[in-house]
Amino acid sequence: MSKKLDYILQLADNAMILGHRLSELCGHGPILEQDMAVTNIALDLIGQARSLYQYAAEVEGQGRSEDDMAFMRDAWKFKNALLVEYPNKDFAYTIARQFLFDAYNYPFYKLLAESKDQTLAAIAEKSLKEVTYHLRYSSEWMIRLGDGTEESHQRIQTALNELWMYTGELLEASEADTAMLAEGIGVDLAKIAPLWHQKVDEILSIATLEKPEVKWMQKGGKIGSHTEHLGFLLAEMQYLQRAYPGQEW
User: Does the structure show a pLDDT above 80 at 50?
Assistant: First the structure.
């Protein structure tokens, strides 16, 4: 598998898996307005994943479709960051996970829009309005929960503490990241890191939340080593295509 294909799949899998996680909350939001908002973010992410999977299939050149990429690969072939596969324990976990990813994804897409690869640049440019909204939404909810009631503060701090060890992987370059950066296609994660920390520090301060002091980070998602959560997620997400291959809407 080429490094370029690996790189595109990293981006596509991040969007697909996080989009699916958010879709699990459809009909289960704390209030109707937030149920609809989270569902719309899920649709945004799955739309981004479709564009990226279409391009991945084209780069691979083996006649596979976007559906094959999403529904016919096993867990060890997925290259998403571990953070996005973490379950929705409650609304606080959903928001904390979304914010930690959005604070990374927004500057990432801004830089990807300058890629020498015209297709990736176009996808990034098209997605930028969406990820801008995602970051604003998750930031506002981090503040509401953190600087809200005693219970909401405790719940979002607990979620933040538990999810923190999955954030280091976002900013750590894989072989695909390094190869694509060298070709002027990929994003320099060294430029993303200070922007991510700046946004996280800003929002946590306003939200009266403490930044976790965890130094050891989990990693491996970008090379196919995942938590136990991904297998269960894929079993549900891929069931229909696995049971009835080749079906179309």
Answer: yes
Dihedral of the alpha carbons of 101, 83, 93, 191, in degrees to the nearest 10? -30
CB 166 within 8 A of CB 83: yes
Q: How many helices (H) and strands (E) does the chain have?
A: 10, 0
CA–CA gap between residue 222 and residue 177 (Å, rounded): 10
3-state secondary structure 203-221: HHHHCCCCCCCCCCCCCCH
Reduced to 3 states, what is the DSSP secondary structure of residue 235?
helix
Listed in sequence order, the residues at least 6 apart from 135 whose beta carbon sits closer than 8 Å to its beta carbon are: 99, 102, 103, 105, 106, 199
Q: Any idea of the CA torsion for 46, 94, 140, 121, to the nearest 10 degrees?
A: -30
Residue 249 pLDDT > 70: no
Q: What's the full length of the chain, in residues?
A: 249
Dist. CA 219–CA 221, nearest whole Å: 6
Residues 183-216 have pLDDT tens digits of 999 999 999 999 999 999 999 999 999 999 988 8
Structural domains for the chain = 3-243 (1.20.1260.10)
Q: Which of 14, 77, 71, 51 is nearest to 224 (CA)?
A: 77
| Predicted pLDDT at 1 | 61
Q: What is the pTM of this model?
A: 0.94
